[in-house]
From TrEMBL:
<feature type="compositionally biased region" description="Basic and acidic residues">
    <location>
        <begin position="1"/>
        <end position="12"/>
    </location>
</feature>
<feature type="region of interest" description="Disordered">
    <location>
        <begin position="1"/>
        <end position="20"/>
    </location>
</feature>
<feature type="domain" description="DUF8175">
    <location>
        <begin position="55"/>
        <end position="221"/>
    </location>
</feature>
<keyword id="KW-0472">Membrane</keyword>
<feature type="transmembrane region" description="Helical">
    <location>
        <begin position="22"/>
        <end position="43"/>
    </location>
</feature>
<protein>
    <recommendedName>
        <fullName>DUF8175 domain-containing protein</fullName>
    </recommendedName>
</protein>
<dbReference type="Pfam" id="PF26526">
    <property type="entry name" value="DUF8175"/>
</dbReference>
<keyword id="KW-1133">Transmembrane helix</keyword>
<keyword id="KW-0812">Transmembrane</keyword>
<dbReference type="InterPro" id="IPR058488">
    <property type="entry name" value="DUF8175"/>
</dbReference>
């Protein structure tokens, strides 16, 4: 659930959690509206036993972030590592290394914080690249996220288990994140990060195609935290 003071003082109305047997359908209906804006995964009907390779020129393998640790922030586990963020000021987590690993952490950190912190407007102005129309779409997506039930929230913001770069240059990164699916196998979240000259920022439009649900992670690199998990 949302744990920031603003949400705690003014909780959004919530409907009772739907029976668990209907959870995949209920979550899909909510996430479809959000997915087109911030790349939250849309649950597919038929899983495959493969993961689609990255676009030509993409990185097929790369090292995970150094000394990775997942910390619980606003009810969600977010990545912290030697590749960033170096500082957290209010809702802003910033200071990422100018490396694929820094882009990786920034893409997940910033996009997730935009949706789950009541002070998201501060992030829109400093750490998000989007035109005015996209900014309004993000605000709409935040409203959708705030109205999720506790169970839907947990499903929508699952911790990723692996990643794959579709594109990486010193200025731009496009990444697929694999998350466990409520229907088995893995779903894939699309994220993009842009180097603004001093740090990585989140770009709303990743330009990546959706990947179907998969029972395998061919071409993906598994995250590993400090405990070796």
């Amino acid at each position: 659930m949302f744990t920031t003071r603003e949400f705690a003082d003014h909780p959004a109305p919530r409907n009772p959690s739907p029976p668990r047997r209907w959870m995949p359908v209920a979550v899909t209906a909510v996430l479809v509206a959000v997915a087109s804006i911030v790349a939250i995964v849309v649950i597919r009907d038929q899983p495959h036993d493969f993961a689609t390779p990255p676009a030509p020129g993409g990185l097929t393998t790369t090292e995970p972030p150094r000394e990775l640790e997942w910390k619980l922030i606003n009810g969600i586990r977010l990545p912290f590592s030697e590749d960033g963020p170096a500082q957290v000021d209010g809702p802003r987590a910033h200071g990422y290394t100018h490396t694929p690993q820094g882009a990786l952490v920034a893409a997940w950190q910033i996009a997730t914080r935009v949706l789950t912190d009541a002070r998201y407007e501060q992030l829109l102005g400093t750490q998000v690249r989007a035109d005015l129309g996209q900014q309004q779409q993000v605000r709409n997506a935040v409203t959708q996220a705030r109205n999720l039930t506790a169970d839907e929230f947990e499903v929508a913001f699952r911790q990723p288990v692996a990643f794959q770069f579709a594109t990486y240059t010193s200025m731009f990164a496009r990444i697929y994140f694999a998350v466990p699916s409520v229907k088995g196998g893995y779903d894939f979240v699309r994220r993009a990060a842009l180097w603004d000259g001093t740090d990585w920022v989140y770009q709303v439009d990743s330009g990546l195609p959706e990947l179907p649900n998969s029972t395998g992670l061919t071409g993906f690199t598994t995250f590993q935290d400090r405990a070796g998990r």
